[in-house]
Write a structure and sequence with these properties.
This protein is α/β, with parallel strands linked by helices and 404 residues long. Helix content is 37%, strand content 17%. It is globular and about 65 Å long.
């Protein structure tokens, strides 16, 4: 019999915006699990779609000329939703694989274009791009990079909110050596930082000026989290590649991928025999694709992208009063259904474990929030109601009261 250790928090069931522990106690899922339960928990439509697909074709590889109907339908649908013309879709099994795919594709693109020296990848300090090899190497959270020995070379990180820092790095390295720049529309695991006004537009313009591929990491921001399909539309961006995962299935099954703009895909399509030799065993998995299609149906039918737009202000308003709390240094939010409460420097100096203690106190009050460095982050399902958002803010306030 499985025995839960006292230090563990065992989640045994979930429904809607609620999860339940092994004792049956209910908690508001203020983080949509790990940013991904956009459509909420317990959606039988997704379960039934996956089960129906497994009765027909549970799994088969998608290599060479092999494919399957759900993967084809999903790729076509995502390409139509993408904010770039004539997009191609490369399916993976998660966000980390999507990042590695985009990075390898960026380098291979320039090799196919006769510029093999363009291998350098620039990303941002405090960025998170998964835990695979390339994602670890271009990530900007130092604790996630250290202790692994030599990482992938030819990578550079710049200040996360300073377009001039990117320009200076390009000039120092030489644009003819830079393959791509990676950026999250809203930084997630690095502490939940919305972009400074004009920042994303400025770096996109800079990349275009120097013919550097611009890759938007929308693994967290996509599928309604910031009110649009791929998280870049509200800034009018048309990246060369967009990585996605999480909300594409609302986490019901593992799926990720890359939206590839026409010009990046073209070298691999313009003549027979030119192959991008990269792929994972479960890419294009038919059961997973069927779950994704059912999830997209829910997001569209229930207008959950618009719901995120409607709720971003109520969520921000529920958090803003916490800025006056003596234990709080900053409140961030107002861009999508995302928010963070950062503790004051003096509180963290006096008690380095304060964030974890507040998170535990909030959980004891029946609400799940996520500790992220100096901050506590929230990213509830898109199905959350305003009364539940108020509950989230109230629990955070009471949790903060336990430390000051």
């Amino acid at each position: 019999m499985f025995e839960v250790k006292s230090s563990q928090f065992c989640v045994s069931a979930a429904e809607g915006v609620w999860i339940y522990d092994q004792d049956g106690r209910r908690y508001l899922d203020g983080t949509a699990s790990l940013w991904y339960a956009n459509a909420g928990h317990g959606r039988t439509e997704i379960v039934e779609a996956a089960a129906a697909q497994m009765r027909t074709l549970e799994s088969y590889f998608v290599f060479n000329d092999f494919t399957n109907p759900p993967a084809e339908e999903l790729a076509d649908r995502l390409a139509q939703l993408a904010p770039v013309d004539n997009a191609k879709i490369f399916l993976t099994t998660g966000g980390g694989e999507a990042i590695d795919t985009a990075a390898k594709l960026a380098r291979q693109y320039w090799a196919q274009r006769g510029q093999p020296q363009r291998t350098h990848i620039i990303s941002r300090g405090n960025a998170y791009h998964g835990t695979n090899g390339m994602g670890t190497s271009i990530g900007g959270i130092e604790a996630n990079r250290s202790g692994f020995g030599d990482l992938v070379p030819a990578t550079t990180r710049v200040a996360h909110d300073d377009a001039e820092a990117l320009r200076e790095a390009v000039e120092r390295l030489g644009a003819d050596r830079v393959a791509a720049f990676f950026a999250e529309p809203v930084m997630g695991a690095g502490g939940l930082h919305p972009p400074q006004p004009g920042y994303l537009e400025a770096v996109a313009k800079l990349c275009a000026e120097h013919d550097i591929l611009f890759v938007a990491d929308s693994v967290i921001c996509g599928f309604g989290r910031v009110g649009s399909w791929f998280g870049v539309e509200r800034w009018g961006l048309k990246p060369d590649m967009i990585t996605f995962a999480k909300g594409v299935t609302s986490g019901y099954l593992p799926l990720g991928g890359v939206v590839v703009a026409e010009r990046v895909a073209e070298p691999f399509w313009d003549r027979p025999g030119r192959v991008f030799r990269h792929g994972a065993t479960y890419s294009g998995h038919p059961t997973v694709a069927a779950a994704a299609l059912a999830n997209l149906d829910i997001l569209e039918r229930e207008k959950l992208l618009q719901r995120a737009d409607e709720l971003e202000r109520p969520l921000h308003q529920a958090l803003l009063p916490l800025a006056d709390h003596p234990a709080v240094g900053e409140v961030r939010g107002g861009v999508g259904l995302l928010g963070a409460v950062e503790l004051a420097p003096e509180v963290l100096a006096a008690d380095p474990g304060a964030v974890g203690r507040v998170q535990k106190a909030v959980r004891d009050l029946g609400v799940i929030v996520r500790p992220l460095g100096k901050a506590l982050a929230v990213s509830p399902p898109l199905t959350i109601a305003e009364a539940e958002i108020e509950l989230l803010g109230k629990a955070l306030k009471e949790g903060l009261d336990t430390i000051g």
